[in-house]
Amino acid sequence: MYEYVSATHLLDDLSKVDFLMYGNIDLPWKRYVDDCALAVRENPTHWDHNVKTKDDSEIWNGDYKLILDNMDKYRQAGYRETNTRVWKTTMTQPKITFPWEPDIIQCLPISEAVATPTLQQPGNVMPIHIDNFVFLRNKLGKDANIVRFLIFMKDWEDGHVLQVGESMLHKWKQGDVYVWHPTVRHVAINGGLTDKWTCNVTGVLN
User: Fold this and answer.
1) Is the pTM of this model over 0.85?
2) First-last CA distance in the chain
């Protein structure tokens, strides 16, 4: 695992690279994915897409305007509901919470953490974006050192790709943890034939 010293030290290291391979967390990921797959079947309302309009929700105002502006750009570029679909445990309130989430969070140097298992099916893209952490920043303050750790819940398979900054990320193993600076653009693609499962853990660096 990466030798964590402080928030300042990690953010400085992240400012010099597109991403860091933080380490690998050895947990029963197969069981976790099975739990998540069952939750997908039982909670179809947690599906969403990345081309919302003002008519889709009442929250698109104030600090959320930036998110909506990005979605307008996606729609203009040709993205649609059918090719940007994603299932997340945080997509609808109350959040779906699994009993094993604290086992993941305790391996990372963050507090106020939210774990978000996420499914991206074949043929879907999360277009180029920067994580704004709007909801957490509203809760914790705009100066909080918020980062997102990305954990792969399954081994890499053909067609599963992330672009982070100018680097391509693939051939990961289950439990691999990656992190990048909050200002880095990235893209998540499932151009393969199998589901891509990840778990975002977002919080404030200790």
Assistant:
1) yes
2) 16
- By DSSP bridging, strand 186-190 and strand 176-179 are unpaired
pLDDT at 62 over 70: no
Q: Find the angle CA(94)-CA(98)-CA(103) to the nearest 5 degrees.
A: 130
17 has a pLDDT exceeding 90:
yes
SS3 state of residue 160: strand
Per-position DSSP letters for 93-141, written without gaps between them: SSPP--TTHHHHHTTSSEEEEEEEEEEE-TTEEEEEE----HHHHHHH-
Residues contacting residue 101 through CB under 8 Å, at least 6 positions apart:
115
Identify the burial level of 201 via C-beta atoms within 10 angstroms of its C-beta, where 0-12 means exposed, 13-18 middle and 19 or more buried.
buried
Using 50, 70 and 90 to split pLDDT, how confident is the model at 56?
A: low
| Distance between CA atoms of residues 17 and 170, nearest Å | 16
